[in-house]
Write a structure and sequence with these properties.
Length: 180
């Protein structure tokens, strides 16, 4: 007569009544348990991976914002919208596609703060958002001309030309373009 006994967690094992507990039966129970554990670990890994992708999506959807004080108010500016920052004495002109804001500050502090967030210093008085750069070309003076997507051009001075290498991760066929 057949009876139903519980095997590894969540599995029922059919046995003939009176059958001995053979080595093959033990191996079958053990491998079934390992299969259940592997399935559980796989499900846990899948859930962990889903959670990780969810956190990454949340992080990218909440882009970096810059808080600045303008006319007695605190404005939050999305860094992805900032095209360039220019020094004008003790003030900075924060240029976006649609507007420009004048704030009190130092270009050195702004460049240091924004370094590593997609901005490069191109001269003593200017920092540009690398994601807006469309083209660079050498000038006979050893400086470079940098053009952004809107068509506006900036001069990259000789002191800061080494920063241009951070515009792209890979450079192909540019050995003579960036000597030394």
């Amino acid at each position: 007569m057949d009876t139903l006994k519980m095997g590894p967690p969540g599995h029922a094992v059919s046995r003939l009544e009176g059958a001995r507990n053979s080595l093959a039966d033990q191996a079958e129970r053990h491998s079934g348990g390992a299969l259940v554990m592997a399935r559980d670990e796989g499900a846990q890994t899948a859930r962990s991976t889903e959670a990780l992708f969810g956190l990454r999506a949340l992080a990218t959807s909440q882009s970096l914002r810059l808080a600045i004080k303008v006319r007695g108010k605190i404005l939050f500016i999305d860094l992805n919208d900032v095209v360039a920052i220019h020094a004008n004495g003790n003030y900075l002109s924060l240029e976006q596609n649609a507007r420009s804001l004048l704030i009190r500050g130092s270009i050195s502090v702004a460049a240091e703060t924004l370094d590593g967030h997609g901005f490069i210093r191109i001269s003593r008085s200017a920092v540009v958002n690398a994601s807006f750069v469309e083209e660079i070309s050498p000038l006979p003076t050893g400086e470079y001309r940098l053009r952004i997507k809107s068509g506006k051009e900036y001069t990259v001075t000789r002191t800061y030309k080494r920063n241009l290498k951070s515009l792209a991760k890979f450079w192909i066929g540019t050995g003579a373009f960036f000597p030394g």
